[in-house]
Structure to design on (607 residues):
């Protein structure tokens, strides 16, 4: 199983009249298994959301393939019953003219016409409580009457109401405070135990570290390192991964304490290599792995 | 003393009644101080920032005073506040990155903005500030969409501080940025303070770890009130208020394995500010709550510079 990206590339046409080609995602392969959280990290513009949008069929794949249980991505109702995404910027993905309960009712009409209204309302209430919102306080409201954090959680609830197997979660906790954030992460961990696969996109490395079994590090559209989270974060091999880790703010320890020592001149020159297996389950894009002094 | 806020009350008028978003808040800031302001979503952080610069249509100044460099700010009087805005107090609002005019080149926009304030642009000064935040001077010829999030955020910072305001309020300016950019923006903020472009700064954020990197003092609010205020190092290692303790314990860290450990959020949710309960507002979520907590706990200075509003701290 279950989500598999195989040598996926996305090329955007940019510049005047689309004259130039720009590879936002370039030859990316990884998979997400059932009951597993994989976190996708990388700086702004590295291609994380583009990958998420391709998985959800919101943008086309230029070359390569993305399959879920062997079936290629298809922007169709049956596909979305099992695969859902929650995206960055909750304000843009909500239709401003519908109240929250109406949005949920539309899911029922479309996917579960056989469920009775009363039973559906009960499901909605309990799902909304799962994301730690008070149904009475949010369901009757229009989007502009809700805070960013409340909207983000309603979007998660909307995805969870479907019988999903795979969730693409793109910066879904960016507007939540520390305590609510942990509640949402623990909820995802619980769903994972029940078999949900999650692709967790985040710029907060501490959250990926908390939740994910495996981590994929993306730079300029290519994977530079991936593997078990404890390996990637505990023994980062690629200079880019080390740079990201060093930039993470820590309680009561200055950034300088984490500054990586020694610069890799090979990488500073922009060179990279194919993904090699450095140790079991830990891959790094470095052609000089063997003679790296570290 | 650069800023002195005393017993400040600012409410939102709504059909259902007043939302008591700031309810008797007092604190002071020294010259050169960076104050990190944290607390749960909806606790009043943005309201505090706005109160020091412009009350929006629904906000009402219900009591208390704000003094900046010894002068009282007429915060309830929109017209008289004009003299202070931008010159003395400047705000980088939440979501300001997306608020830049998309149809104007950045250099032109800056010029227009300054002119509307009756000031002429000092090109050399502007360029030296771009250097400080590591923005190429060519950005002045760019449209906002041509800049990445972090570049836009640094540009907004440069613009809001061009007139060397005494106080800068930065509201969630780093939340949408990746870690490397976050670090660059945070360092630029401290650089502005060190260079004297702003005397003091309120840095509003959900990210306590980031605050602890750049703030001298951290203030945590809860449901419209001050819960705790302490030097940054003390706040993250020895918090005294039960809410702050739980908040800090809910922060995951990199380099720690969580395979079998679970962090816990704080059960329950904050009270409605329409009709907040009497006594301590954290009471129904607080593991230490006792009978005395039915009375409102006063803000007490438990150590020099360490203030806590809790009967049991
Ligand atoms: N529709 C588009 N046309 C042209 N270029 C695009 C388009 N969408 C994205 N890009 C470019 O593709 C690259 C990857 O963008 P993407 O949104 O996937 O990044 P990201 O890793 O999600 O970044 P962030 O952390 O800022 O959300 C960026 O350089 C972006 O400018
Ligand atoms: N225009 C408004 N009308 C009524 N109530 C409002 C209005 N704006 C804010 N509030 C309420 O005032 C309280 C404080 O809001 P504020 O925006 O200051 O919170 P915050 O601490 O900045 O939260 P966040 O971390 O989500 O930005 C909240 O309970 C909010 O619901
Ligand atoms: S005053 Fe009482 S309820 Fe409030 S934080 Fe302290 S112990 Fe808890
Ligand atoms: Mg993105
Ligand atoms: Mg706010």
């Amino acid at each position: 199983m279950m989500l598999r990206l195989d040598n996926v590339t996305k090329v955007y046409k940019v510049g005047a009249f689309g004259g130039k080609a720009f590879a936002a995602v370039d030859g990316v392969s990884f998979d997400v298994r059932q009951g597993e959280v994989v976190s996708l990290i990388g700086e702004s513009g590295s291609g994380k959301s583009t990958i998420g949008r391709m998985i959800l069929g919101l943008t086309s794949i230029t070359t390569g393939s993305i399959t879920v249980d062997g079936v290629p991505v298809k922007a169709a109702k049956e596909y979305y019953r099992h695969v859902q995404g929650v995206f960055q910027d909750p304000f843009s993905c909500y239709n401003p003219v519908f109240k929250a309960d109406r949005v949920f009712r539309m899911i029922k009409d479309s996917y579960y016409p056989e469920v009775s209204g009363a039973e559906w309302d009960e499901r909605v209430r309990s799902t909304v409580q799962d994301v730690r919102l008070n149904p009475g306080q949010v369901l009757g409201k229009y989007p502009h009457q809700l805070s960013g954090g409340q909207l983000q959680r309603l979007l998660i609830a909307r995805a969870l109401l479907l019988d999903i197997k795979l969730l693409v979660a793109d910066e879904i906790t960016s507007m939540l405070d520390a305590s609510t954030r942990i509640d949402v992460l623990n909820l995802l961990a619980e769903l994972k135990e029940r078999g949900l696969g999650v692709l967790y996109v985040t710029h907060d490395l501490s959250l990926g570290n908390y939740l994910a079994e495996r981590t994929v590090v993306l730079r300029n559209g290519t994977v530079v390192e991936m593997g078990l989270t404890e390996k990637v974060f505990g023994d980062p091999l690629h200079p880019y991964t080390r740079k990201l880790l060093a930039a993470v703010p820590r309680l009561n320890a200055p950034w300088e304490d984490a500054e990586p020592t020694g610069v890799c001149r090979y990488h500073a020159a922009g060179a990279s290599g194919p993904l090699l297996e450095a140790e079991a389950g830990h891959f790094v894009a470095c052609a000089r792995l063997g003679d790296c002094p570290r | 003393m650069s800023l002195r806020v005393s017993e400040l009350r600012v409410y939102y008028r709504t059909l259902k009644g007043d939302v008591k978003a700031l309810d008797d808040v007092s604190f002071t800031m020294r010259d050169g101080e960076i104050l990190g302001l944290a607390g749960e979503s909806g606790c009043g952080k943005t309201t505090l920032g706005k109160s020091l610069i412009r009350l929006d249509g629904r906000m009402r100044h219900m009591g208390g005073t704000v003094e900046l460099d010894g002068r009282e700010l007429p915060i309830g009087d929109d017209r008289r506040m004009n003299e202070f805005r931008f010159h003395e107090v400047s705000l980088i609002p939440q979501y300001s990155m997306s608020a830049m005019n998309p149809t104007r080149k950045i250099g032109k926009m800056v010029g227009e903005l300054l002119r509307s304030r009756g000031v002429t642009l000092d090109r050399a000064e502007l360029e030296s500030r771009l250097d400080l935040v590591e923005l190429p001077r060519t950005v002045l010829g760019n449209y906002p969409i041509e800049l990445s999030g972090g570049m836009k955020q640094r540009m907004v910072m440069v613009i809001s501080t061009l007139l060397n305001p005494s106080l800068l309020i930065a509201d969630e300016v780093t939340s949408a940025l990746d870690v490397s950019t976050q670090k660059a923006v945070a360092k630029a903020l401290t650089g502005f303070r060190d260079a004297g472009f702003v005397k003091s700064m309120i840095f509003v954020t959900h990210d306590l770890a980031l605050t602890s990197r750049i703030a001298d003092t951290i203030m945590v609010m809860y449901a419209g009130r001050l819960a705790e205020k302490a030097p940054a190092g003390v706040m993250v290692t020895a918090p005294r208020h039960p809410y702050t303790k739980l908040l800090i314990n809910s922060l995951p860290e990199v380099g720690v394995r969580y395979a079998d450990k679970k962090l816990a959020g704080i059960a329950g949710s904050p009270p409605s500010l329409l009709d907040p309960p009497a006594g301590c507002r954290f009471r129904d979520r607080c593991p230490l709550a006792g009978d005395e907590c039915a009375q409102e706990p006063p803000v007490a200075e438990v150590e020099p510079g360490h203030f806590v509003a809790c009967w049991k701290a």
Remarks:
- The domain at 32-57+70-200+208-217 of chain A is CATH 3.40.50.300 (Rossmann fold).
- Chain A touches chain B at residues 42-45, 132, 134, 147-149, 174-183, 185-186, 189, 203-207, 209-211, 230, 233-234, 243-245, 247-252, 254-255 (CB under 8 Å).
